[in-house]
Amino acid sequence: MGSHGIADRVAIVSMGCTTFREHWDRGVDDLAIDATVEALDAIGLRPADIDAWWLGTAQSGMSGITLAAPLKLEGVPVTRVENYCATGSEALRQACYAVASGAYDIATAVGVEKVKDSGYQGLNAFPIPNDGTQRTLTAAAMFSLVAPAYAEKYDVDPHELRRTLARIASKNHSNGARNPRAQFRREMDVDAICAMPEVAGMLSVFDCAGVADGAASVVVVRAEDAHRYTDSPIYVKALSFVAGNGSGLLDPDYDYTHFPECETAARDAYAQAGITDPRRELAMAEVHDCFTPTELVLMEDLGFSERGRAWQDCEAGVFDLHGDLPVNTDGGLKSFGHPVGASGLRMLFECWLQLRGEAPEDRRILTADRGLALTHNLGGYPGEMVSFVGIWGSERG
Amino acid sequence: MRGIIGVSGHLPHWRLDRSDIAAVLGSKGGAGTRAVASYDEDPVTLGVAAARAALRCGVDPGSVESLSFATTASVYAEKSAAPLLHAALRLPSRVATLDAGPGLRGAASALRNALRSTDPLVAVIAGDVRTGLAGSTDESGGGDAGSAVLVGDDDVAPLVAEHLGGASATHEFLDRWRAPGELRVHAWEERFGQQRYDELALDGWDRALGDCGLSDSDVARVAVSSPHPRAGAGLAKRLGASGVEVTDRLDRSVGFTGAAHPGLLLADLLERSAAGEVVALVSLADGADVTLLRRTDTALAGPSVAEQVGLGRPLPYGKYLAWRGVLPVQPPNRPEPARMSAAAAERRGEWKYGFVGTRDRSSGAVHLPPARVSYRGQAVDDMDAAPMADHRATVATFTVDSLAYSPSPPVVFAVCDFDDGGRLPLELTDVAAADVHIGLPVEMTFRRIGTADGIANYFWKARPVPGAVGVEEAD
After folding, report:
1. Are residues A229 and A242 in the same domain?
2. Chain B residues near residue A130 by CB distance under 8 angstroms
3. Which of A384, A352, A387, A346 is nearest to A368 (CA)?
4. Which end of chain A is more exposed for a tag (fewer CB within 10 A), N or C?
5. Is A128 on the interface with B (CB under 8 A)?
6. pLDDT 10s digits, B19-44
7. Same domain, B9 and B125
8. Nearest CA to B277 among B247, B232, B314, B234?
9. Sheet holding B33-36, edge to edge
């Protein structure tokens, strides 16, 4: 048994990403078409040039027909995948493996979500018939469970922790303000965020990801074919995925201050990519900041901070745009918005821009020459989650 | 010898101060408090709580042969409620169940029948949530409670009270009435009903004494349950003159708790009585039912009614009105929960109603909900049942969710680690959000989670162990 990865065997040769916002005037079809056509146009291809497709959508449609019908694809495989909020990364992972296997020459992954047609704020899972014993809390509340546990374990004053979480949100708002595709483009200072009313534990709405409609797409080919499409491809260095077994909800040993699924996925990804010191080897990271406490503990789970020290690193600006390791330079879920099926690909889109030096100057990282970027995409809740870690490089090793 | 093996009156956590009614409505609210069922309690859950307490006398629940449940506020019209209590109490499938209602008299009738039954052990359970229009005497004078009386033979378990005898009287007259589901109780001129009850009470009383060969002065203490405070006053006056103590009807502290009241007063009566004393329960509701008992020296399992009276926490009148649906309030703009699946609920009945998980035989790891494969060691189908309803837990972490749908936002939610192993994230109830902290000790309580498509959905929640809130701060 082993996880061997497919380092340097697959390349990203084009990407597309819509704006993320309340697209009252656009449906799932429109968003999928926009993101796909943007990626294909950039390299002069048409949908018919793609051998196989993967569609990631959590609950905006069923089956591959959700993509095949709007694009009028003919006679090709289209696979719809779902893996909670890591759905976009899952679509990408499948497309990469399909190309690496030699089954197809060129594949496209599209992630799309239309969340603003429900009539309710936030994300709302469709109910599967059950025995009526499961309490449905908001995702914000589920992730807010981390805050008191973290404060207790590491003896952080809750007011201090409140400000640290606000600083994470403020950083991501600052980055998002420099991103024309982002849902929220207003800077928010720490005091203003701390003054907001609590809605879930110590969290306010400004600790929560934006809820937006949107789509993103990516075209992958075998690494040796990459330069037929672009002069500056980026290469798949690692793809790792862990589906938790929910034991955190059963096992009193789980303390809600870390996400084991993310730690395991990161360890596997670093091994695939040959990374030993992620904080210094990575140029940047896009992580799943669905709520501010999530980004906090991910800094530890992904090995960027020592255990119990992420709050101090956040306060010190380590993960700021021009810090030691820039995190969520596009504004993250917090500011860019979170169309579930698209988010994993949106993260990669920012790596694509930054590693190729195409990010707008006012949010360009200074560490791009390190040549490696990480995306981390999770779904579910503390104690019961799925986690994806991908590593991407500008050079083929 | 036939008699009572266990008895419990259960009072909910909340109290409405009647002066709060006057402050809001400008009308007379009266003095004292009334007991208030939480938004997630109903006659069934109050009955379950009382029955769980009564069973703590130590009798084997597996000995129960029949169960009756009385209420004036039935959860369903078509479906019986008693099987819900049967499931939550994890009684054997051979148990016969009866919904002794609707109507105020159900519990007293069921008690009478149980005392004359040949079933070795009978559970007589009642629960009631008393409603009324804002400002009504039913609103202020009513109370919510559960009660349970375990009636049986002394070869099943020691008796706390021996049955000496009793009598009933029935007479048709219209005193109070309410259509199913109606908030308001209608009543004829009070003096009409009162006088009918006075006659019925004296008739029943005299025949009950005759049945036992006793006279007034042989009786130490009497409890009189009736829908109006003055009904039975004639009997009370006569008994008072004979030196018989007439116990507090709990009007000032609890209120009249409908079908639950005879059992509640019986619990209080026995809790106040010494070994050897003869005591009587007089229940007036569309007739009279009189039961005479002799208290034995067998100790009663607590907590007593008097202790619970002292534990209540105040509830604002506005919250009370919202909980009873008298004042509709804006819910959060979130989807309402879907109805439960009847098939899934039945398949998982031991978990849903009985709160029984599984324990891995090799690792000892407790799984809530029950699992077939262990999270520790991955052993397959090698688990024992792990009943957890009577186990306490401690809050590991918690949150307050103001956005989630709830009949009474916000949702207070905690990861609960059981003291003897096992974890379950659970909604908390009977708690103020500000009182929750890591380390808070909690106990399990059977509650109505909600209603969808007319289906009442039940499961367990956690609530602070009585007296736990504020203790740590005081230390």
Report:
1. no
2. 340-341, 344
3. A352
4. N
5. no
6. 999 999 987 778 999 999 999 999 99
7. yes
8. B247
9. B33-36, B14-17, B313-314
**Whole-number percent of chain B with pLDDT over 90:** 89
| pLDDT on residue A1 | 52
Query: Residues 6 or more apart from B79 whose CB is under 8 A from it?
Result: none
Q: How far is CA A59 from CA A63, A85, A340, in A?
A: 11, 10, 9
- Chunk chain A into consecutive blocks of 10 residues (it has 397) and report each block's average pLDDT, rounded to whole numbers: 91 98 97 98 98 97 98 98 98 98 98 92 81 90 97 97 98 98 97 96 96 97 98 98 97 98 98 98 98 98 98 98 98 98 98 98 97 98 97 96
B139's enclosing H/E stretch is helix B137-141
What is the extent of the structural domain holding A273?
Answer: 139-208+235-393
Q: Are residues B376 and B394 in the same domain?
A: no
Give which of B40, B340, B350, B401 to mutate to test A binding, by max A Cβ within 10 Å: B401
Whether residue B411 has pLDDT greater than 80: yes
pLDDT at B472 over 60: no
CB B420 within 8 Å of CB B407 = no
R_g over Cα of chain B:
23
CB atoms within 10 A of CB A224: 11
Query: Over the stretch A231-254, which tens digit does the pLDDT of each residue have?
Result: 999 999 999 999 999 999 999 999
Question: What was the pLDDT predicted at B473?
Answer: 39
Domain count, chain A: 2
Domain coverage including residue B382:
355-387
Cβ B260 vs Cβ B227: under 8 Å: no
The answer to whether residue A164 sits within a structural domain is: yes
If you write DSSP's letter for every residue of B152-208 in order, what string do you get? EETTTS--SEEEEEEEEE------EE--TT-SPPEE--HHHHHHHHHHHHHHHHHHH
Q: Per residue in B371-401, is it b (16+ CB within 10 Å) or e — as a string?
A: beebbeeeeeeebeebebbebbbbbbbbbbb
Residue A138 contacts B where some CB pair is shorter than 8 Å:
yes
Q: What is the pTM of this model?
A: 0.95
Of A167, A198, A233, the domain-final residue: A233
Q: Do A132 and B457 touch (CB under 8 A)?
A: yes
A385 lies in the same domain as A261: yes
DSSP result, A162-177: HHHHHHHHHHHHHHHT
**DSSP H or E stretch at residue A31:** helix A28-42
Closest chain A C-alpha to B426 CA, distance in angstroms: 8
> Is A255's CB within 8 Å of B399's CB?
no
Confidence class for position B101, pLDDT limits 50, 70, 90:
confident
Which of A136, A155, A196, A250 would you mutate first to test chain B, the one with the most B CBs within 10 A? Answer: A250
| Predicted ipTM > 0.90 | yes
Residue B73, pLDDT above cutoff 90 = yes
Residues B315 and B15 sit within 8 Å (Cβ to Cβ): yes
The span from the CA of B3 to the CA of B158, in Å, is 9
pLDDT reported for residue B470: 58
DSSP A362: G
Q: Which amino acid is at A52?
A: A
Residue A133 lies in a domain: no
CB neighbour class for A102 (10 Å; exposed up to 12, middle 13-18, buried from 19) = exposed
Asked if residue B186 and residue B87 are part of one domain, the reply reads: yes
